C-alpha cells in the first residue's frame, strides 16, 4: 500500500512537472514572435515595414511579378485576370512604390484585373544612370511595360496620382487608342492659379540653387514627419521608430530621388500635363483633395476647362495624399466612373 501511495505521489509530481513544462514551452513559443516583433520595431523598423507590405499584399490577394523587355525589368503587383471589364493600371507618385495603392485596392472588387507597377527606377523596377526620368521619358517606359505585359490588347483604365498623374495624363495624350478612360488624382504638371506651401518651398529651393533640403526627400525622422504634414491634411500619429524605419528604407535611394526631382520639376516636365491636355480624348476623371498643399486644387478647374466633359470630384478635409487619407472614397469614385463609362458604351454592368 505504501509503495502504491508513493507511486501515485510520483505520478502526480510528474504530471505537475509536465503541465509546468508545457506552459513554459507554450509561453516560450509565444514569446519568440513577440520578442522578434519588439526587436524589429525597436532595432529594425525598416524590415518590419517590408514585412508589413508583404503581409498586406498577401491578404489582399496581390501577387508580385516581373516583366523583362530588352534588359529592362519592371516590377509590378496584380490581382485578377483580364476579362470583359477593362483592366486598371495604377501609377504611383514621386519616391513611392506599387504598394501605395494597397489602401485603395482593398476597396475594389476582387474580380477586377488590377495592375500596380513600380515607376521607372523606383523600388523593384530597373534603375539606370542613362535612363530618361522626365515625364515624357517615363511615359515611354510605361508604354513599354504595357506592351510587354499585354495590357495593350484591350483598352484599359489608367489611374495616376501626383507624378504618376502627370505621367498618366501625358500617356493618354500620346496613346489614346490604348486606354478607355483615365483618372488623375492630384496630378502635378499643371499651372494652378493659386500658390501652395510647396510652391513656396520650390521658390526657396530655386533661389538657393537647390542647396536646401527638398521637402519631399526627408533624411531624418523629423523631416519625414514634416513631409507627412505637408502631404496630408489628416494628421496621422506615427511612432518615432516607424518614422526612422521609413527614413532607413528611403535613405539609400535619395540620390536617385534628387535626380528624378530635378527632371520632373525641370523646364521639360514641369507643366507637361497642361501642355498635352488638349490631346486627351478618353473620358477623364479628376479627384483632388481640397486642402492639397503640394499641388493646389485650383488645378482641377484648369483641367476641366481644357478637357470637355471632364468629371471633377473634390474631397473635403483631404490633402495631397488622397489614396492614404480617403482610400475607400477614392475606390468608390473610380469604380463609379468606370461603370458610368462602360454603361454609356453598352458594356457589362456588373462590377460589384
From TrEMBL:
EC numbers, comma separated: 3.1.1.23
Keyword Ubl conjugation carried by entry: no
Domain AB hydrolase-1: 86-327
Membrane topology recorded in Swiss-Prot or TrEMBL: Single-pass type II membrane protein
InterPro entries with a match to the protein in the record: AB_hydrolase_1, AB_hydrolase_fold, AB_hydrolase_sf
Annotated transmembrane regions: 30-55
Gene Ontology biological process terms in this record: acylglycerol catabolic process
A Pfam family per the record: Abhydrolase_1
GO terms under cellular component: AMPA glutamate receptor complex; late endosome membrane; lysosomal membrane; mitochondrial membrane
The family this protein is said to belong to: Belongs to the AB hydrolase superfamily.
PANTHER family tied to this protein: MONOACYLGLYCEROL LIPASE (PTHR43798), MONOACYLGLYCEROL LIPASE ABHD6 (PTHR43798:SF34)
Function summary: Lipase that preferentially hydrolysis medium-chain saturated monoacylglycerols including 2-arachidonoylglycerol. Through 2-arachidonoylglycerol degradation may regulate endocannabinoid signaling pathways. Also has a lysophosphatidyl lipase activity with a preference for lysophosphatidylglycerol among other lysophospholipids. Also able to degrade bis(monoacylglycero)phosphate (BMP) and constitutes the major enzyme for BMP catabolism.
Record's protein name: acylglycerol lipase
Protein source organism: Channa argus
